[in-house]
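Onboarding guide, step 5: your first structure request.
Type a short instruction followed by the sequence, for example:

Predict the 3D structure of this protein.
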Amino acid sequence: MNRFTILIVAAFLIIIALMSSIFIVDEREKALVLQFGQIKRVEEDPGLSFKVPLIQEVVRYDDRILSLDTAAIEVTPSDDRRLVVDAFARYRISDAVQFRQAVGPGGIPLAEDRLDRILINEIRAVLGSEGVTSNTILSPERASLMNRIRTSADAEAASLGLDVVDVRLKQTNLPEQNLAATFDRMRAEREREAADERARGEEAAQRVRALADRTVVELVSDAGREAEIARGEADAQRNAIFADAFGADPEFFEFYRSLAAYQAALGANNSTMVISPDGEFFEYLKSDNPTGRTSE
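The system replies with structure tokens like these:
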């Protein structure tokens, strides 16, 4: 091998060594420089960095906010009404050195496994604490419960070099074995409420009908009384007129009374009437001067 070839090979090796000593830190990540498994330094600023080739290695961790969905678990609030809840958390790696020391080569998968256990323990502890009922979990106080879970989980996750940003309860359901009983109870409560409403409506209808019937009786009674008064006044007026006419001309009044009797007795509806022609009933029919008046 000549000298020129040796120089080319040496230059090539130098280039490879330089290339392997340079690495780029992305703005979305943190980098740890390890030497024989020991942490030498942390690179958090984006840009070019250097390491010793073949001796040092670079481990990268995502610096963005990550998400973790927990498995559905069963909790028992203080009212002993079991619920099935699942949650999700937002977290980020706050301390890359501590994170590496806590999880080692396991990285994110091992850290999420431990964080999942922390979240499940805190969810059970908070939702099963004294004073927290199933109604509380389903009410607007749910937000304060989630804040309590986040605070407790964040304190526990600090040993992993993690910062728990947020915890949210996604779903809160009843266990399958309790759904049928709960639906039956809800149906019974709605049917009872409907029966109460119908009973109150029927009672109100009875009151309205009774009031209407009483009003009808009062109106009919008032109308009857007013009609009797009108008839009495009319009869009195009629009798007064008859009395005045009788007093003014007794003979004409007797004549008028006889004509009225003739009209009633000899009407078209009367079939037969047997009476003596000499009777007093036909006195005015036989008289040449029925009124008994003399002409002047």
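Each response can be followed by summary notes, for example: Residues 249-296 form one domain.
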